[in-house]
Specification:
Helix content: 40-55%
Domain Amidohydrolase-related: 11-273
Family: Belongs to the metallo-dependent hydrolases superfamily. ACMSD family.
Number of domains: 1
CATH architecture: Alpha-Beta Barrel
Strand order of the largest sheet: 1-2-3-4-7-8-9-10
Structural class: alpha/beta
Keywords: Decarboxylase, Lyase, Metal-binding, Zinc
Strand content: 5-15%
Radius of gyration: 19 Å
Largest sheet: 8 strands, parallel
Order of helices and strands: EHHEHEHEEEHEHHEHHEHEHHH
Number of helices: 13
Catalytic activity: 6-methylsalicylate + H(+) = 3-methylphenol + CO2
Number of strands: 10
Pfam families: Amidohydro_2
CATH class: Alpha Beta
Length: 322
């Protein structure tokens, strides 16, 4: 069809703002201090990313970046919009929000949605726990109310750059448990129930949570488990079924538990492109699992790769016109 993008949508692409050589050295030191054995700082290059996307059959990639301070975050969002402005049919932006400061997060939503030109973010990105503030915390309810009213897509990514707990990078396994803890807190605080117009997409097949979801359903509503919001078993199941998850770096063993929890319709493709823990070889190995599992379940090897476009109609139109 003429109005359909020819390739996939990758919801999980990383970028960074331009840096000086001195800043690169500081980045490498920070990585190595956190057990991440790097020699060179990763740099974003749009043309190199597009070349890989072409080889991988990806029409459009959603970019996200979650710097640690609000000032850096705003500069990153502005730079991300400039990339989309240069390549509107190939990139989208999930603008970062500083969820450690709810008032500043609200201001950034307004700023991003009040851009004077036609280029706006396609959604928003948040960190599971930002400077000690979890997405399940009560203080974030005004932020969720605003995003709910706007019917936004919110992409949730764990902090992969904190110090790993076992002498290895947190990007290896810690991120999976960080995501699972965050989803659990949000479930018990009724976040998915109270803000049903937000489309939540969790990275890495929802981390460890889908594999643990049956345990939560079996035991999580028993009297010995704190449940201040009085979530029922039916409500718990309903909330789990609302969650979307991407396939980044987890398809071999994580995608099918995610499918079992929320259905294949709630799985979207993510490559995790642009971070030092992934290479073209590992992204391609993961993508082959996505293709095989989608084919097995739906009979359509492109089902998951195309599904992300359903969440972003404006991006889909841009991709189709490119």
């Amino acid at each position: 069809m003429a109005d359909e993008p020819h390739g996939w949508l990758d919801i999980h692409g990383h970028f960074s703002v331009p840096r000086t050589s001195a800043e690169d050295a500081a980045v490498v030191k920070a990585f190595r201090d956190n057990h991440f054995m790097l020699s060179d700082a990763p740099r974003f290059n749009a043309e190199e990313t597009l070349a890989y996307n072409d080889r991988a059959g990806v029409s459009m990639q959603m970019l996200s970046n979650l710097p640690p301070t609000t000032d850096k975050l705003k500069k990153s969002n502005d730079f991300g919009l400039s990339i989309v402005g240069q390549y509107p049919s190939r990139f989208g932006l999930l603008a970062a929000l500083p969820t450690d400061y709810p008032d500043e997060a609200l201001e950034e939503i307004t700023r991003m949605r009040n851009q004077e030109d036609t280029i706006q973010p396609d959604g928003f990105a948040v960190t599971t726990v930002r400077n000690g503030v979890s997405l399940g915390d009560e203080q974030l309810r005004p932020v969720w109310e605003e995003l709910n009213n706007r019917k936004e897509v919110v992409f949730v990514h764990p902090n992969a750059y904190v110090r790993g707990q076992d002498g290895r990078p947190s990007a290896l396994i810690d991120v999976a448990f960080d995501t699972a803890r965050t989803i659990t807190k949000m479930l018990y605080n009724r976040v998915f129930l109270d803000f049903p117009k937000i489309t939540w997409v969790f990275a890495h097949s929802g981390g460890a949570f889908p594999a643990l979801s049956g345990r939560v359903m079996l035991l999580g509503l028993e009297p010995w488990v704190p449940n201040e919001a009085r979530v029922t078993k039916e409500e718990m199941r309903d909330q789990m079924s609302r969650i979307y998850m991407d396939t980044a770096a987890t398809a071999a063993t994580g995608m099918e538990p995610a499918v079992k929890m929320a259905g294949i319709e709630h799985i979207v493709y993510g490559a995790d492109c642009g971070v030092p823990c992934l290479t073209e070889a590992t992204m391609e190995e993961n993508r082959e699992y996505v293709i095989a599992i989608a084919q097995k379940i739906t009979g359509n090897s492109n089902f998951v790769g195309k599904k992300g476009f359903d969440l972003f109609p404006n991006a889909k139109a841009r991709a189709a016109s490119g």
